[in-house]
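Deliverable D2.4 — example input (structure tokens):
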């Protein structure tokens, strides 16, 4: 090579070859000889002065820290018996970090030379730089088993909880990990078949009572058939991946992109930045950057990783664990945008005007380095005037411009009028034993809304770009409510004394007007719930039917490829559309686009059901010590067999069986969603305030049973309903007419008083 390499080529070489970073290694790689070495030395010094490189002795290295999930090589124990490890991908300056392994009793044995995937925690002020907790040994992937431990004279057996599975495992003596008879345990296969022809296993963790809270998410995983064990070939493929370099990418490492996520986020797949737009034609406008982890670089079409990701469809989240779509090596490491670590991304640069309207965008395949990993609470506190020391340094250059851009996007949102449902999300707090300590409702901060608006806009950009380039993709589709559900909603609205316009094309703006009428009234939560129930479920489709709820014509999921396969397909579409490489959409991807849409729509519903079942079980376990307690709530559902009461404190739904409503027959009216007493004419409907006494809580099924004590301040009669024979309808009709006459008289009295 006769010419001096570019700055990008030098940085790419150092990134791709961390063990060959001496000046002579770089010179040899680019064929630089003689006097040209002086120019190379000058170039390296410039890169060092600008902070791109740091020099240690005679080598140049990218000044990075270790990511939270790293591959380590286990070293021999020291004289004190402590186990240490060497990071295999250290590119930083200074001495190689010292990593102390903290083995748990249930961890697999580790010896010198073993390669492990570990979760790292920085330990400033200690003699070592990091502590490591084993995630798994690389190259080994023992089968995981969930079952009931049965004690024997020597060791025991594990009986699986999976339906239809009668295979058992022998637990040799010494491999019980202290498990007691009847406990739910998680184990791994540890050896060949024993003398009885059964495979051997060793207990890894004891989960205690199968009905206890800590066990419920595992039970849901198995009951709903969610794959939670990565095949050997998938892990081997993930373990063989190396960090992406700069070649073929735009260098965005100097942009102060940051991630803003929940404080307990397990992965970080999106980063954001906003800057004032200095263009004379866009006064008061903003430039937005949204950078998303380039998962497509690592998960290529037809690979083992690709097949497994498509099979899972998405990650599934529980209060105590996550079942990821991708192995830890990718989801927690190479594809996670950790602070201070170079990571491959697909980024979109968006220009908006002062009113939040998009006036242009372009996509880049890039390399970024997160300036900070912040929580929603930390970012919000900084904006509210209480920044942490770290946030204070980012307040003016990063956070305030983000909030300024969000202010513009809010204006556009108000004009667009997406559906503005106000349904608080529950947060289940667990202690170390997996027991529920509290049920609270998550705060909705401006920081949450900011990220949502940025992500929605990026998703719109992805859909518009692929449509313009005639590139097939998976749309996120949300169709408008069907007429039957709308009629049911109108009945609820009418019964609440509110109005929903009829005889015109329904728009989200009409529903928002309804929600605004209900806001702050006794009917607020009821109308929000009824509106939600009138909606169809969103799904994926290769055809574009628009997104009713967001009031958008073109919409596709692009921003979460670590946890959603749909987004990975969209990323591949962008790669193909821009000609960025050979890892775009394959012929097979295109042929089965419809099939993939149905597959991942189904896996999404499966995860939602498993998550809901788990939440119900946790709630039932939490409420199990409150039997007999009277709790305030509101009627949230009516059925032929009883009513559902949403309890104020936890948001849990308790069933009040119809037999407990009193000594009369209740007629069910599906159209008006009411129950009416045949003797008293009492009408029970949605939204009524009640006091309910908790009668039963079943953690295994997640069911709560209650009885009504008061309804709208009136005491309910005690005793079971009369059920020997169904009374004639005329009684109900007479009672209904009497109530109507009574209501008219009351109305006249009120009118005269006015």
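Example output (designed residues):
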């Amino acid at each position: 090579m006769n010419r001096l390499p570019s700055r990008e080529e030098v940085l790419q070489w150092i990134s791709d070859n961390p063990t060959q970073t001496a000046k002579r290694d770089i010179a040899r790689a680019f064929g630089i000889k003689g006097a040209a070495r002086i120019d190379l030395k000058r170039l390296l010094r410039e890169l060092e002065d600008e902070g791109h490189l740091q020099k240690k002795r005679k080598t140049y290295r990218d000044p990075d820290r270790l990511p939270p999930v790293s591959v380590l090589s286990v070293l021999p124990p020291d004289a004190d018996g402590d186990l240490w490890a060497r990071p295999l991908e250290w590119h930083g300056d200074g001495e190689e970090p010292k990593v102390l392994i903290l083995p748990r009793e249930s961890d697999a044995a580790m010896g010198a030379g073993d390669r492990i995937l570990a979760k790292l925690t920085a330990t400033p002020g200690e003699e070592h730089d990091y502590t490591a907790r084993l995630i798994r040994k690389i190259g080994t992937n023992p089968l995981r088993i969930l079952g009931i431990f049965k004690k024997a004279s020597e060791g025991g057996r594990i009986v699986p909880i999976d339906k239809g599975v009668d295979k058992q495992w022998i637990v040799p003596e010494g491999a019980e990990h202290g498990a007691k008879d009847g406990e739910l345990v998680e184990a791994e296969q540890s050896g060949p078949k024993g003398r009885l022809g059964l495979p051997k296993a060793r207990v890894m963790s004891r989960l205690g009572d199968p009905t206890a809270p800590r066990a419920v998410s595992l039970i849901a995983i198995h009951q709903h058939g969610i794959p939670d064990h990565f095949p050997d070939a998938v892990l081997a493929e993930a373990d063989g991946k190396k960090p992406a370099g700069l070649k073929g990418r735009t260098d965005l490492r100097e942009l102060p992109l940051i991630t803003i996520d929940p404080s307990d986020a397990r992965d970080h797949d999106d980063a954001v930045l906003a800057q004032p737009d200095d263009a004379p034609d866009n006064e008061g406008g903003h430039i937005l950057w949204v950078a998303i982890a380039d998962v497509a670089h690592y998960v290529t079409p037809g690979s083992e990783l690709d097949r497994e990701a498509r099979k899972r469809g998405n990650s599934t989240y529980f209060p105590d664990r996550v079942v990821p779509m991708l192995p830890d090596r990718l989801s927690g490491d190479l594809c996670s945008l950790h602070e201070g670590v170079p990571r491959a991304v697909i980024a979109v640069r968006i220009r908006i005007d002062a009113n939040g309207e998009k006036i242009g965008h372009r996509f880049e395949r890039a390399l970024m380095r997160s300036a900070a990993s912040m929580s929603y609470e930390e970012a919000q506190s900084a904006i509210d005037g209480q920044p942490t020391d770290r946030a204070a340094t980012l307040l003016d250059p990063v956070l305030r411009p983000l909030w300024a851009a969000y202010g513009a996007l809010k204006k556009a949102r108000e004009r667009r009028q997406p559906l503005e449902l106000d349904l608080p999300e529950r947060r289940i707090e667990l202690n170390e034993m997996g027991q529920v300590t509290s049920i609270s409702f998550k705060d909705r901060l401006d920081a949450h809304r900011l990220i949502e608006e940025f992500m929605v806009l990026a998703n719109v950009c992805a859909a518009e770009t692929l449509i313009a380039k005639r590139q097939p993709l998976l749309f996120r589709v949300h169709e408008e409510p069907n007429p039957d559900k709308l009629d049911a909603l109108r009945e609820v609205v009418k019964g609440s004394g509110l109005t929903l316009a009829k005889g015109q094309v329904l728009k989200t703006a009409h529903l928002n007007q309804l929600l605004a009428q209900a806001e702050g009234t006794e009917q607020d939560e009821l109308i929000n719930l009824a509106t939600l129930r009138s909606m169809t479920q969103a799904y994926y489709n290769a055809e574009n039917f628009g997104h009713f709820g967001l009031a958008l014509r073109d919409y596709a999921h692009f921003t979460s490829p670590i946890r959603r396969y749909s987004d990975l397909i969209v990323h591949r579409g962008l790669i193909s559309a821009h000609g960025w490489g050979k890892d775009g959409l394959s012929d097979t991807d295109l042929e089965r686009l419809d099939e993939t849409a149905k597959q991942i729509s189904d896996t999404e519903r499966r995860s939602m059901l498993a998550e809901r079942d788990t939440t119900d079980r946790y709630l039932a376990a939490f409420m199990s010590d409150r039997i007999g307690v009277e709790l305030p709530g509101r009627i949230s559902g009516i059925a032929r067999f009883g009513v559902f009461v949403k309890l104020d404190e936890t948001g849990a739904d308790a069933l009040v069986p119809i037999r407990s409503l009193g000594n009369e027959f209740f007629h069910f009216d599906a159209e008006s969603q009411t129950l009416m007493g045949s003797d008293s004419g009492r009408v029970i409907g949605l939204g009524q305030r009640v006091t309910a006494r908790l009668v039963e809580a079943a953690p295994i099924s997640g069911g709560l049973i209650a009885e009504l004590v008061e309804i709208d301040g009136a005491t309910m009669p005690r005793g079971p309903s009369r059920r020997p024979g169904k009374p004639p309808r005329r009684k109900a009709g007479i009672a209904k007419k009497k109530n109507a006459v009574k209501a008219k008289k009351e109305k006249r009295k009120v009118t005269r008083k006015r």
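The first strand starts at residue 54 and ends at 56.
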